[in-house]
Amino acid sequence: MKGIIYTRVSSDEQVKGTSLEDQKARCKKYCAENGIEVLDTFEEKGASAKTTDRKMLVEAMEYCRKNKGKIDTFVVWKVDRFARNAEDHFAVRKILMDYGVTLRSVTEPIGHNPAEKLFETMLAGFAEFDNEIRKIRC
Predict the structure, then answer these.
(1) What's the pLDDT score for residue 9?
(2) Fewest Cβ atoms nearer than 10 Å: which of 47, 71, 123, 124?
(3) Using CA atoms, how far apart are residues 45 and 7, in angstroms rounded to an integer?
(4) Using H for helix, E for strand and C for coil, what is the string for the chain?
């Protein structure tokens, strides 16, 4: 099995901290434990996941498109690193599926069975909810 890793932080403070390195290390460990050969890593520094218009996400998606049939897995540390909007989450996930790529979260049990699908839907919704609450507070 072959895959790529996508990591993201949304603020300069997180970029200066250890969050990206920690995400990458945990994703690599997950891949090693699950027999996933990492072909590439895409690191998003200081980009909000409010939209899909993120340089490294676009590059990761393009990489999957160009390597259709050669990549099985798109690994993220958490669903909210992938998207903070449920509609975007499922739109991008559908594109990945069309390329034959499965989204996997290191920390959350998402997948194709009914319980995993329900949990993923809730996680995508909670990520959007958290984002909306932050907007109200600011």
Answers:
(1) 82
(2) 47
(3) 8
(4) CEEEEEEECCCHHHHHCCHHHHHHHHHHHHHHHCCCEEEEEEEECCCCCCCCCCHHHHHHHHHHHHCCCCCCEEEECCHHHHCCCHHHHHHHHHHHHHCCCEEEECCCCCCCCHHHHHHHHHHHHHHHHHHHHHHHHC
Token pair for 48: 């909000």
Mean pLDDT of 83-110: 94
> Model confidence at 15, in pLDDT bands (50, 70, 90)?
very low
Instruction: Write out the two tokens for 137.
Output: 């507070």
Letter for the amino acid at 13?
A: E
Q: How confident is the model at residue 138 (pLDDT cuts 50, 70, 90)?
A: confident
